[in-house]
Amino acid sequence: MFEKILIANRGEVALRVQRTCREMGVQTVMVYSEADVNAKYLRLADEAVCIGPPPAAESYLNIAAIVAAAEITEAEAIHPGYGFLSENADFAERVEKSGFVFIGPDPETIRMMGDKLAAKRAMQKTGLKMIPGSEQPLPADAAQAAEEAAKTGFPLVVKAAAGGGGRGMRVVHTDAVLANVISVLRREAQAAFGDSSLYAEKYLDNPRHIEVQILSDGKNAVHLGTRDCSLQRRHQKVLEEAPAPGLPRKREEGICEACVAACKKTGYKGAGTFEFLYDGERFYFIEMNARLQVEHPVTEMITGVDVVAEQIKIAASRRLDLKQKEIRFFGAAMECRINAEDPATFVPSPGLIRQYHAPGGNGVRVDSHAYGGYEVPPYYDSLLAKLVAYGEDRKQARARMQSALREYVIDGIATNLPLHARLLADAAFAQGGVGIRYLESKIKEGFAAPGAAV
Ligand code: MV4
């Protein structure tokens, strides 16, 4: 096992990874930007190294500074958390070439998963089902590309191979605009990702977003069940749950087992998530996330498995000691992402937290770096806390979440706590299984700010 791990991230996930390191007897090195110098979680680490000024490009994305911090502190491995450099193949490569262990998949795997069309082709070979569409990049000529894409049938979606997570995609309803949309998207993809490759898929209207968590050491793999992440706004997840509610038992088992088989066939190493769109009938693979995900705690609550500990063990020994038969699934869990933002306008709300009181009680978990007197910096994303509630069934998890939301006090800045309270009280949510468009349609109706549609 490693003696010392450097955590190349900030905020709640920096604290989350630190907690598991402490539990495993591993020393921690935190890196921080000048904007985070006062954050309390830095004091909990064994060492902390400043890596640059507030803008992420000069600190949390500064590969040279992070590798230098690992060198001067003699850390053995680097955990990238999520976001920032977590899916940057060049970073993983630099870390390994500098003699450190990157806690995550191989650079080549990260690179392949970053090319969504290549990932699709690789996963199709393992037997996972794809949304019908182009199997090769669309031709460079716009008219030819349109002709090729149109074979998919309308409505269709054109996606940038280097995009993902909602970036670089356009829905097209008629042939008339197709060539034009393709030209525009190609230029945008080139500017945003330095890669203009595009592909087309049949557009699914209001599917659910369901994902499968896996752990794999390159030979052996296990799944930790499903999560439902359909409740999102502008590709930002708002509330996630495990397991995905209301799935036919056999279907759920089938897709989880197909993911395990895909890990074994591709030799995947690390924790990972297979993302699917589910139309009520079938699961269509869309992307694989080669990192720890924000919403991993709901999976931990229903399985008792520490996903971060497993990541670290896989990186250290390259062997998974979990067996599928030994993994048991109990109850249900949900996670509310508490953001420092206006609950009606969604405008970020950085600043000083004057009063802070976190909820507690049976089955309640709060992953947060926040406290009274903490100043939320304006430079990074607005995730302040993840409020997680577990219950023996979904009904109990929801009741506990409602109670926890009532207890939670965060004063001085605006948060989306009121939005979550309304969502938890919503009849369709209580029923379970809404599609990816549900939350935005409710927000349009004035759900975020009752009485004043936004
Ligand atoms: C789609 C789709 C409908 N049809 N592909 C958006 C993020 C990226 N991971 C894939 N995305 C989508 N791909 C086809 N063929 C709808 C979405 C989509 C979406 C997917 C998951 C979660 C939220 C979403 C919100 C809007 C659109």
Offer a few descriptive terms.
single chain, 454 residues, alpha+beta, Rossmann fold, Dna Ligase, domain 1, D-amino Acid Aminotransferase, Chain A, domain 1, eight-stranded antiparallel sheet, five-stranded parallel sheet, 15 helices, 20 strands, binds ligand MV4
Neighbour order of strands in the largest sheet: 13-12-9-10-11-14-19-17
Instruction: Profile the largest sheet.
Output: 8 strands, antiparallel
Q: What portion of residues belong to β-strands?
A: 25-35%
Provide the CATH topology of the largest domain. D-amino Acid Aminotransferase, Chain A, domain 1
- CA radius of gyration is 22 Å
Large-scale geometry: globular
As a percent range, the share of helical residues equals: 25-40%
List the ions, cofactors and other small molecules found in this model.
Answer: ligand MV4
User: What number of structural domains do the residues give?
Assistant: 3
Q: What is the terminal separation in angstroms? A: 52 Å
CATH C-level of the largest domain:
Alpha Beta
Would you identify the regions where 5 or more consecutive residues have pLDDT less than 50? Answer: none
Total E-strand runs: 20
**Helix count from the secondary structure assignment:** 15
CATH superfamily of the largest domain: ATP-grasp fold, B domain
Query: How much is the average pLDDT?
Result: 96
Label the structural class: alpha+beta
CATH architecture of the largest domain: 2-Layer Sandwich
